Amino acid sequence: MSPELVEEPIEGIHVEGPAPLPADAAGGNTSADRGQASQQPAPQQEAPQQPAPQQPARGSVPLSASDLAIDHQIAQISTSFEFLTSLTPINSAEARRAYLNEGIAPVFEYPELAVDPDVVEEQLKGIDVSTVEDPMVRQLLSSKHRELELQVDMLRARDTEDFLPLSIELFGNISPRLRERAEKLLDWVPDKPESIDQVDAEEFLALAQAEVDHYRGLDSSLAMHAEITEDAAGVMVQGDTLLVPPTTHVETRRANALIQHEVGTHLVTRANGAAQPLKVMGAGLAGYDETQEGLAVLAEIACGGLTAPRLRTLAARVVTVHRLVEGASFDDCFHALTKAGFSGVSAFTTTMRVFRSGGFTKDAVYLRGLTDILDHVAAGGRLDLMWLGKFSLHDLPLVEDLWNRGILHEPRVCPHYLSDPEAEPRIQRAAHAESLIDIFQEGPHE
Question: With contact defined as beta carbons under 8 Å apart, do 251 and 198 qualify?
């Protein structure tokens, strides 16, 4: 889903807790652990060997056709427009040069909307989620229906004063605890310059394509692609495709982390979710952004690529969102970041991301999502079900119920980075670290 200016990467591993996936999917437990019938105890040696009872097939508890029809309608509406792309300036590079070189206040331009908000609103009004029979699915679809209504309102309010309150309603406020964590990161994480050893767009695409080829080698029917395009403001996933702008330059030490963020998290969960009977698992359940970005940054940790500059950037986004909500101007936020040690280009990009469309508070979810995921792992929570599709930690109990009942299917693929024997130790160290200040890394050989 997700544009990275860079709009990001990561997810983790931890299979403690109830009922992980089978070993062939995530190294977990047997189907009996998911509420299915277990094998009978072995008979005594002198008795004749009895055949084990047959296990019920996965997916043997289907939803009704009427429930699936409503799910498919909501998923189709969700994928009929690119929410994030619609809210991202198409002239950010030009505006940045004018601001940094000539001091001209940025005036952002946006792409033409691919859908008419009024038409989408009428489509949503025509869907009666209250008729969904399965109570768990009804709850999930009702929340998604409300989220889509908010997104439509935001498209309609783009670049107006009505946009910011809607954004806060969708993504939530900055808690004092999160703001304090972000400020401490800016104060204490070393301000290290980016490495001059970088890969360009063609080199990065080759690395990303190799990762895509790995997954397609596991499942040739997988819808997963990567391409260089002028139509992206930064490295980002749109649908089933990783988009790479031709102007891309990524630190070599960060390249794999960004790939695991985008391909190993966003594309993997998109592909797995799209194959579920519930199609909103691919489009994304309500509030999935925060957990997705937390998992994506966790992937960066798992492969040893969460560097100090990257962690500082995530903190800067939170602080800038807070300043925006408190009434600070674009100039105020930009200069506060340069004073904190960010380059002009980096400070402009962070400030632009937050001020786009009238105040887009989504950028706070990266650090918030990461802290929630790390807290979840530290408490012994499971991550194996997170590969089934796109959903929030808040909805994990509901997703787990659908899994236990056989409504959701096995993931088609699991993140490649989990095959690294160092991945789980890295995640565990981060989850049990005394502070976020202790989790940054200097590359894959930290």
Answer: yes
Burial class (CB in 10 A: 0-12, 13-18, 19+), 344: middle
d(CA 38, CA 43): 15
Distance between CA atoms of 341 and 308, rounded to whole angstroms? 13
Question: For 377-405, how does the pLDDT look when each residue is reduced to its tens digit (9 = 90+)?
Answer: 999 999 999 999 999 999 999 999 999 99
User: Which of 355, 367, 406, 298 has its CA nearest to residue 99?
Assistant: 355
Q: What would the two tokens of residue 173 be?
A: 């406020």
Tokens encoding 135: 């109570």
Q: Output the six-digit token pair for 316.
A: 């800067």
pTM, two decimal places = 0.84
Q: Exposed/middle/buried for 397, CB within 10 Å: 0-12, 13-18, 19+? A: exposed
Q: What length is written for the chain?
A: 446
The closest alpha carbon to 355, from 389, 332, 388, belongs to 332
Nearest residue to 416 via CA among 265, 297, 255, 239: 265
The residue whose two tokens read 């489509």 is: 123
Q: Which residues of 251-269 are buried (b: 16+ CB within 10 A; e: fewer)?
A: bebbbbbbbbbbbbbbbbb
Which helix (DSSP H) or strand (DSSP E) does residue 227 occupy?
strand 225-228
Q: What is the pLDDT of residues 208-229, one digit of tens each?
A: 999 999 999 999 999 999 999 9
Token pair for 386: 């997170």
Do the Cβ atoms of 323 and 315 come closer than 8 Å? no
Do the strands 236-238 and 198-200 form a parallel or antiparallel pair, or are they unpaired?
unpaired
